[in-house]
Design a protein that fits this description.
The complex is a heterodimer of chains A (479) and B (475). Chain A has 479 residues and is an alpha/beta fold. Chain A is 39% helix and 14% strand. Chain B has a 9-stranded mixed sheet with strand order 2-6-7-10-1-11-12-13-14. In chain B, strands 5-4-15 form a 3-stranded antiparallel sheet, with no helix packed on it.
């Protein structure tokens, strides 16, 4: 992105040309890829023109002024439909921008469109979208992952230079891994959730997806920081991009949890991660075998909490104020019919599960118990970070699966096996590509760190990136 | 017929009069055009997040302190989930497991006795919107409209222990609670506007028994009278059932004001499961003890304290003191006038008499302006009747009491030398009656005084006139 910014600054390229380039890619690829729910060509071009004018007048808002971005369609954009990939919100147009969106607009980024996801971010493949599945750019018969599948695929396919996603149990990292891009789930509270449509507020995070580690770090620096509109936002400092000095790796302690390797893991995934670990060791890092035994309970805990919170957070879609309304004799019937018509099967399933685990009789056995286990998992992880600086695991047990391959919900839920832990703990975790498998599908590695250790994660990821290389430079002809 | 003990507990919702709402910055003005005071947050639009209004926490804390509660430095918000068109998020943000205040009490007089009702808890929560039905009720309406202006106004729910024993006591408690809320300035407590609402739980048990009976909840009690009447009705209904050996059903009933009876709303089996769990969008409330101390200092003199002071320090009767406590503005005026040095009883008499009538019509008068009038009366320079006339003038013109007296020439004539000729004239014109007086008919004195007063257009000082008459007639 520094190069693109340089081209813009030196007027070798205009923002209009940049946006036109990406719009052309979108028109070319979308018929197959389906990464977008809404493309705002007109709006993006208008923003590009305004940006070009600002540059001519020496009034550029930032070095990134005029660069387009795609935003996941569960992040509110003023005047631009935000559907959450649900029929329920097919015509819902927000009255306000999410805090992250206004921050991007403040530095001159133009919103080129809204990307596909599993309905209300519930899923791991975008197959639960009401607007069709997003294909994997590397193999159109395979899924892009989810729920931020559209954001990951759009970046991987070169439809946009970068994008925003959300991550409640792995929804940035897993699609980033499947599509071969960098994706960060930040520390809980470092990025405002204001305007991000809630799935499970205690687990929801917003984060960047980009082709390179540096771009991801840059995008993160644009959205991170305290927000008085979000009571769970931390008073943490701003984030600035590291200097990429590599000497830190000497003596860096990397935790390698045994539970994330071996049985059930694709040998190619494990091989690629081990290869990178060895490279890091070669540069002076110390590999420390550790155990994160509580990960065994992460998925159950995660599902209990996510369904409970979702059943409440999605209750507002009742047909009274916006969205689908099916008229009925009385209000209760209207609620039931509107929700039945507006929600897809997975959303209904999770709402029912969540309603059950919160019910007076089951609360103690499920929700309360899950909160206790969450505390134990958190203790387990924070204990580990007393011994090591970062923890490295595969992001997913296998590469992108075929569309329609996972028939049972349970199979789908297991996609979050390695990622949900970071959400339960609120710690930052990042996916960095670490090669391709024999079919040419991207492989991903997860780097987790202690709270607010994003800079360290980016530094480690950058080393991995140097080791495996970055593919496909856009505008290379201009460089 | 068995005799029963009545057990009553109350749940009172008080709307706090903060300028902005509990979880967003919308205004809270009553009576604004429908849906003119709402924003994405209080409409519960997707992606919005709540923020706690510190003023609401302050008012709730103040209420807790005034009700002698323990203030918890740690409290937490929860979601209470249910569907209703007036509830934008389909959950209410409230405090369940960890309320802000617990274990308090309120003392008040019932007849001559000071009684105490325990306060179990006080917690903060958000108000819902308001439904406007096209028909009389939601069931027989073709459509209903929703006004979200009210949605998100801060409420406190005050829950009493079940230690109220009569419908009348329940009413006295609620009246005292309302007065207290007014004194500390956290709510305007207008039952007719819904800023004070009360639900009552009532059960009966055989007299003296320690086992509580099955309780019934009564909702929709929109006035003090409704509270008392509904509880009386329920007392009768339940005792009749028990006399017949029938069981009381645990249920929610609603007060039908027109029919004068309670009717079933829903039974226990239909009670919703609110699926309450901790609100993930709000961190727990951690109060700074120093901040709570500051709130404590800001709690003004409370009604009962004022009552005691008026009786003990100012020598007023219970009746007089109660008037000055219940009408706090009159009480404030009393203290100002007393401060100026006027005699206490005469101030009360004055305030409770002609002044009260006129002040209700015109509003209060500055203490200084009033003091001058009372001073003139105390000095005997104007009579009580004259004072009344001057007071009326005071409300309608800008002149001071002294100026009015001068202008109208109202000043009392107390100089015996000036009155002597008038007295002589009156006695001269009534020789027959004067003779009868001298023969022992002393009650005729009043007649003579009246004649002198009339002759002087009421300006004569009655005391002086009496003395002069007595002296004359004694000769």
């Amino acid at each position: 992105m520094r190069r693109l910014a340089h081209l813009l600054e030196t007027r070798q390229i205009s923002s209009t040309e940049v946006v036109e380039h990406y719009l052309a890619e979108i028109s070319k690829q979308e018929p197959v890829l389906n990464a977008f729910i809404t493309v705002d060509a007109e709006g993006a071009l208008a923003q590009a023109k305004a940006s070009d004018r600002r540059r001519r007048e020496g009034q550029a808002l930032s070095p990134w002024d005029g660069i387009p971005i795609a935003v996941k369609d569960n992040i509110s954009t003023k005047g631009l439909k935000t559907t959450c990939a649900s029929r329920f919100l097919a015509n819902y147009v927000p009255l306000f921008d999410a805090e992250v969106v206004s921050r991007l607009k403040d530095v001159g980024l133009s919103i080129i469109g809204k990307t596909n996801l599993d309905e209300f971010a519930m899923g791991s493949s975008t197959e639960y979208s009401a607007y069709g599945v997003t294909c994997n750019p590397h193999d159109h018969e395979r899924v892009s992952g989810g729920s931020s599948g559209g954001s990951a695929a759009a970046v991987a396919a070169g439809e946009v230079p970068w994008s925003l996603g959300t991550d409640t149990g792995g929804s940035i990292r897993q699609p980033a891994s499947f599509c071969g891009v960098v994706g960060l789930k930040p520390t809980y509270g470092w990025v405002s959730r204001y305007g991000v449509v809630a799935l499970a507020p205690s687990l929801d995070h917003v984060g960047p997806l980009a082709r390179t580690v540096e771009d991801a770090a840059l995008l993160f620096s644009l959205i991170a920081g305290p927000d008085p509109k979000d009571a769970t936002s931390s008073d943490a400092r701003e984030f600035s991009i590291p200097d990429w000095d590599e000497s830190f790796v000497k003596g860096l302690k990397i935790g390698v949890p045994e539970e994330f390797f071996g049985e059930g893991i694709s040998p190619e995934v494990e091989g690629a991660v081990r290869d990178c670990l060895n490279a890091l060791e070669g540069w002076g890092a110390e590999l420390v075998p550790i155990s994160l035994a509580t990960n065994e309970y992460a998925i159950d805990t995660y599902l209990t909490l996510v369904t409970a919170e979702a059943s409440s957070s999605l209750a507002r879609y009742d047909g009274v104020r916006y969205g689908v309304r099916i008229p009925a004799e009385d209000s209760n019937t209207m609620f039931a019919r509107s929700r039945s018509a507006g929600f897809g099967a997975e959303v209904k399933r999770r709402i029912m599960l969540g309603t059950y685990v919160l019910s007076a009789r089951q609360y103690g056995a499920y929700y309360e118990q899950a909160q206790k286990v969450r505390t134990l998992i958190r203790q387990d992880v924070l204990e580990a970070f007393k011994q090591v600086d970062v923890i490295i695991t595969p992001t997913t047990p296998s590469t992108a699966f075929r569309i329609g391959a996972k028939q049972s919900p349970l199979e789908m839920y297991l996609s979050d096996l390695f990622t949900a832990m970071a959400n339960l703990c609120g710690i930052p975790a990042l996916n960095v590509p670490c090669g391709r498998d024999s079919r040419g599908l991207p492989l991903g590695m997860q780097i987790m760190g202690g709270h607010f250790q994003e800079e360290l994660l980016f530094r480690v990821a950058r080393l991995v990136e140097n080791h495996v290389g970055v593919e496909g430079e856009v505008f290379s002809d201009k460089l | 017929m068995t005799s029963y003990d009545t057990v009553i507990g109350l749940e009172i919702h008080v709307a706090l009069m903060t300028e902005s709402k509990f979880l967003c910055s919308c205004k809270t003005t009553f009576g604004a055009p429908p849906n003119s005071q709402c924003c994405p947050v209080c409409l519960g639009l997707p992606g919005t997040l709540p923020l706690i209004n510190e003023k609401a926490v302050e008012y709730a804390t103040k209420a807790g302190l005034a009700l002698n509660c323990q203030i918890h430095f740690f409290s937490r918000f929860d979601r209470k989930n249910y569907f209703y068109p007036d509830l934008p998020k389909a959950f209410q943000i409230t405090q369940d497991a960890f309320p802000l205040c617990t274990d308090g009490f309120l003392e008040y007089y019932m007849d001559e006795q000071l009684v105490r009702t325990a306060i179990t808890r006080i917690h903060l929560e958000e108000e819902a919107g308001k439904l406007i039905h096209s028909g009389p009720t939601i069931v027989d309406s073709e459509y209903s409209l929703v006004d979200y202006n009210r949605a998100g106004i801060p409420l406190i729910e005050i829950v009493t222990a079940p230690d109220i024993h009569t419908p009348r006591q329940a009413r006295l408690f609620l009246e005292q609670l309302r007065l207290l809320m007014n004194y500390i300035g956290v709510s305007d407590t207008k039952m007719e506007e819904g800023s004070l609402r009360c639900d009552a739980n009532i059960s009966l048990k055989p007299a003296g028994s320690s086992v509580l009976g099955t309780k019934v909840e009564i909702k929709n009690l929109n006035s003090f009278r409704a509270l008392e009447k509904a509880l009386e009705y329920e007392e009768r209904r339940q005792s009749k059932l028990l006399d017949r050996g029938e069981a009381i059903r645990q249920e929610s009933r609603t007060w039908d004001e027109r029919a004068g009876r309670t009717i079933t709303m829903r039974s226990k089996g239909d009670a919703p499961d609110y699926r309450i769990f901790p609100e993930p969008d709000l961190p727990p409330l951690n109060l700074d003890p120093a901040w709570v101390s500051l709130i404590k200092v800001s709690v003004p003199e409370l009604p009962l304290e004022r009552l005691k002071r008026l009786e003990e320090e100012y020598g007023l009767s219970r009746y007089e003191a109660t008037f000055l406590v219940n009408y706090r503005d009159f009480g404030d005026l009393f203290f100002e006038l007393a401060e100026i040095g006027l005699e206490h009883k005469s101030i009360v008499n004055f305030l409770m008499g002609d002044y009260a009538r006129l002040a209700r019509e015109h509003g209060h008068m500055a203490a200084k302006r009033l003091a001058e009038l009372l001073q003139l009366q105390a000095e005997g320079r104007i009579s009580q009747n004259q004072a009344k006339a001057v007071l009326e003038e005071l409300f309608s013109c800008r002149l001071s009491a002294r100026e009015i007296v001068e202008k109208k020439g109202l000043e009392v004539v107390g100089d015996p030398a000036a009155l002597q000729p008038v007295v002589a004239e009156v006695l001269d014109g009534n020789r027959e009656l004067a003779a009868r007086y001298k023969n022992g008919e002393t009650k005729l004195l009043g007649f003579f005084v009246g004649q002198v007063m009339r002759a002087t257009q009421g300006k004569a000082d009655p005391e002086t006139v009496s003395q002069l008459l007595r002296d004359e007639l004694a000769d």
